[in-house]
Amino acid sequence: MSHLIGDRLFWAPLRSDVQKVLDLGTGTGIWAIDFADTFPSAEVIGTDLSAIQPNWLPPNLRFEIDDAEADWTWEPSAFDYIHNRNFVCAIRNWPKLVRQCFDFVKPGGWCEFHEKHPWFLSDDGTLSEDHALYKWGKNFFDASVNFGTDARAPQFLKQQMLEAGFVNVEQHILKLPVGSWPKDPRLKRCGLFETVNMTDGISGLTTMLFTRALGWTREEVEVFLTEVRKEAKDRHIHSYYHL
């Protein structure tokens, strides 16, 4: 994602003396580590349900096991900046998450969401409804609704932030290509990274969701994903989705 937004860690106009930062759903912790290195005077906290972060950390960073959907236990208005990324299909109650972000960011602070909307499209007709990539997106959205973690939620984030009380809310919609087909060097690099994500990581994202929410067998999922991976590498299919 950082490559797509110009190799930046964030969009928000943060001051150089930002003091306290929360990274929700930190995952491997790579964003939090990069942020802590960039802002050595800031206290950075990364939270996630799983402790998969590295042991060697910048001295101003710590990780905590926590559920972003549970009631937060920090002091209200505790953070200058709250960062969220890649929560798609992980959150059941988005309005509550947004409200807690509002309650726990300082007046004048910033909250930022970077979310994917993985419905595959093309502008030149090279991707059709018959393609496995398109069918994966449709099935993924249907499964997420059945599972209670609606992947369409990012579409409503701006309105939910306004309703929670945020002001100066900006929404940036970007195209994230899949594959090496873009002519622009930066987009080509992003497309290659996303191809790796699609080929290496799509099984973990799909298998549980499709078997539990759509009733597919594991064998059906793997046969289907073989075709999805093939199309993700096909330079003749100019697919993308929105971030």
UniProtKB/TrEMBL annotation:
- In terms of superkingdom, the source organism counts as Eukaryota
The GO terms this record gives for MF are:
methyltransferase activity
Q: Which InterPro entries match?
A: SAM-dependent_MTases_sf (IPR029063)
One Pfam entry name: Methyltransf_23
Query: Which PANTHER family does the record cross-reference, listed alphabetically?
Result: ABC TRANSMEMBRANE TYPE-1 DOMAIN-CONTAINING PROTEIN-RELATED, METHYLTRANSFERASE
Question: What is the name listed in the Swiss-Prot or TrEMBL entry for this protein?
Answer: Methyltransferase domain-containing protein
